[in-house]
């Protein structure tokens, strides 16, 4: 059926549904049109049978369509008064639609870089997408646990431990830990190619580590601690935090217990190569297996993940667990959940892998990105340069800080605009444009919107062609959050906010506050203030810190 309202915006229907009073009225018509279905010619004949009331002011027939004219004054009143009533930041969050979502404890695992290795674009994506998911879940009323699962175990520590004796320097380690660890790691990897002794030393170091040799463990611990300290500092710049810094190392012993459990449940098979595998094929003919034990008896990435998942369930009693990594790990997580289920852990059904696509060409002045800090520095430097060149830049107290926040929002918006699973090409110039659909545009719009505490205003001053669409759009906020909660795609919210900023831009042009009579100015300020609060809340969920001046 076609339902056409006096605004040429099909978003109007769900938009109206967001306000309970409109929703009730509207569902009356929707039921009416679903049966009997509306045919092209009978619009005329339906019109007299549809009642007008305080919500729907007028109903008229067009060619094959019925037009409903909504009471705009009531719409303006209802939307804007809810800003005054509800607590700051709560607009839309108590909607009936959002109340249909189940709430509970959500564990979100994200970022999860590997110690001494590169922090690549995939880790950056995991960090910001995971942070978005955690923020979203939290604002929808869940108890959220934010976890970073470090790659802090494995043969790389054998190499690092042995290599540190030859290439390492405590002084440099203190000054610039991430850089120095990475250098040592690169050096030792080169060295082992020609130097069999070094390889033996690395193996020896790792086996000392596995046997808890105190000297080896304390060096490892030092590497881990300084890495976490450094990361915490950089995450803070990015507006990201974690409740727990876990890691593969926490589960190496439990991983052996998992192997025993698999054995006792009859799930562990020995392959021709002598490795321990779990048969995942439906025909049970070993056509699809997952390796959980090396032939030398050591565990693997997936074995530690099995142990980690079981441990998290016992410790945190999560209702759902979300893993955020690039899509190349999709099979790993499928196998992980499959084995957990086979072991009888039915909660594995409530574990989800949230995959994302690859980023091409993330480079800084220093070349290929190795450290997260370099990306943030570059974003800030470029933004600062743009701000200095722009004529509209306001004097701010702290231009560095503003450039940092705006630069980061540019990174985030570039990343969140498309479908999460898609690959994209990193482009500094495009993402930092002041016009166009960028994070800079979001920040620019926010900085220009004023806050107003006026409660009393006359809605009849807001019935223009440019103000009503802003209000309709604001009403869709809860639907957008709902959709985002369903598919964990940040694009819905980003595109909603970008659209809002475009609508605000026209409203700013056509509804000046300065120079209008006091009544009109007050009503307009109320509109802009409402828009500002939705924009700010949405930005915060995305992981962006709104700036007040730029
Ligand atoms: N450290 C891994 C990497 O850099 C990501 C860890 C993902 N999480 C997990 N539970 N496996 O590829």
Description:
It is a single chain. The protein contains 22 helices and 15 strands. With 550 residues, the chain is of the alpha/beta class. Among the domains are: 4-96, no CATH class; 378-542, Isoleucyl-tRNA Synthetase, Domain 1 (Orthogonal Bundle). Helix 9 (177-194) crosses helix 10. Residues 1-18 have low confidence and may be disordered. This is Probable arginine--tRNA ligase, mitochondrial. InterPro entries: aa-tRNA-synth_I_CS (IPR001412), Arg-tRNA-ligase (IPR001278), ArgRS_core (IPR035684), DALR_anticod-bd (IPR008909), Rossmann-like_a/b/a_fold (IPR014729), tRNAsynth_Ia_anticodon-bd (IPR009080). One of its GO terms (biological process) is arginyl-tRNA aminoacylation.
Under CATH, the homologous superfamily of one domain reads: Isoleucyl-tRNA Synthetase, Domain 1
CATH topology (fold) name of one domain: Isoleucyl-tRNA Synthetase, Domain 1
Which class best fits the helix and strand makeup? alpha/beta
Strand order of the largest sheet: 6-5-4-10-11
CATH architecture of one domain: Orthogonal Bundle
The level-1 CATH class of one domain: Mainly Alpha
* Helix run count: 22
Shape: globular
Family: Belongs to the class-I aminoacyl-tRNA synthetase family.
Protein name: Probable arginine--tRNA ligase, mitochondrial
GO biological process, one term: mitochondrial translation
Catalytic activity: tRNA(Arg) + L-arginine + ATP = L-arginyl-tRNA(Arg) + AMP + diphosphate
């Amino acid at each position: 059926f076609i339902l056409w309202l006096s605004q040429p915006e099909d978003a109007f229907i769900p938009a109206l549904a967001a306000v309970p009073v409109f929703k009730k009225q509207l569902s009356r018509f929707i039921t009416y049109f679903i049966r009997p279905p509306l045919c092209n010619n009978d619009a005329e004949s339906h019109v007299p049978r549809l009642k007008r009331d305080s919500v729907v002011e007028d109903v008229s027939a067009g060619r094959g369509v019925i037009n409903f004219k909504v009471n705009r004054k009531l719409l303006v009143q209802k939307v804007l008064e809810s800003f005054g009533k509800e607590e700051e930041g709560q607009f839309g969050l108590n909607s009936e639609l959002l109340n249909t979502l189940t709430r509970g404890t959500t564990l979100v695992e994200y970022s999860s870089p590997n110690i001494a290795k590169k922090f690549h674009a995939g880790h950056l994506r995991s960090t910001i997408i995971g942070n978005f998911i955690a923020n979203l879940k939290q604002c929808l009323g869940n108890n959220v646990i934010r976890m970073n699962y470090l790659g802090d175990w494995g043969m790389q520590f054998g190499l690092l431990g042995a290599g540190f004796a030859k290439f390492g320097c405590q002084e440099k380690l203190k000054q610039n830990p991430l850089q120095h660890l990475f250098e040592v790691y690169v050096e030792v990897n080169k060295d082992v190619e020609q130097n069999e002794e070094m390889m033996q030393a690395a193996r020896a170091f790792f086996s000392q580590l596995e046997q808890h040799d105190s000297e080896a463990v304390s060096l490892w611990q030092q590497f881990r601690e300084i890495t976490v300290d450094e990361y915490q500092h950089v995450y803070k710049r990015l507006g990201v935090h974690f409740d727990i810094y876990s890691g593969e190392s926490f589960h190496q012993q439990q991983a052996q217990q998992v192997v025993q459990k698999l054995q006792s449940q009859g799930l562990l098979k020995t392959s021709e190569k002598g490795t321990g595998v779990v048969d995942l094929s439906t025909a049970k003919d070993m056509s699809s297996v997952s390796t959980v034990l090396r032939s030398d008896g050591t565990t693997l990435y997936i074995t530690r993940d099995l142990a980690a998942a079981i441990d998290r369930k016992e410790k945190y009693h999560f209702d759902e667990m979300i893993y955020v990594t690039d899509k190349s790990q999709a099979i790993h997580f499928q196998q992980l959940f499959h084995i957990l289920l086979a072991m009888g852990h039915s909660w594995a059904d409530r574990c989800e892998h949230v995959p994302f696509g690859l980023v091409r060409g993330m480079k800084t002045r220093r070349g290929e990105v190795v450290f997260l800090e370099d990306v943030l520095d570059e974003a800030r430097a470029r933004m600062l340069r743009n701000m200095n060149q722009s004529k509209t830049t306001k004097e701010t107290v702290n231009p560095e800080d503003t450039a940092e926040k705006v630069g980061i929002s540019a990174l985030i918006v570039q990343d969140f605009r498309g479908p999460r699973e898609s690959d994209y090409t990193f482009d500094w110039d495009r993402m930092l444009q002041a016009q166009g659909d960028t994070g800079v545009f979001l920040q620019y719009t926010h900085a220009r919107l004023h806050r107003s505490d006026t409660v009393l205003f006359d809605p009849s001053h807001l019935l223009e062609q440019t103000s009503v669409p802003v209000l309709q759009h604001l009403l869709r906020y809860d639907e957008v959050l709902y959709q985002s909660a369903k598919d964990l795609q940040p694009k819905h919210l980003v595109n909603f906010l970008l659209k809002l900023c475009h609508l605000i831009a026209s409203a700013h042009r056509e509804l000046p506050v300065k120079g209008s009579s006091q009544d009109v100015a007050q009503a307009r300020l109320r509109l802009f203030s409402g828009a500002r609060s939705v924009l700010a809340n949405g930005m915060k969920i995305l992981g962006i810190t709104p700036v007040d001046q730029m």
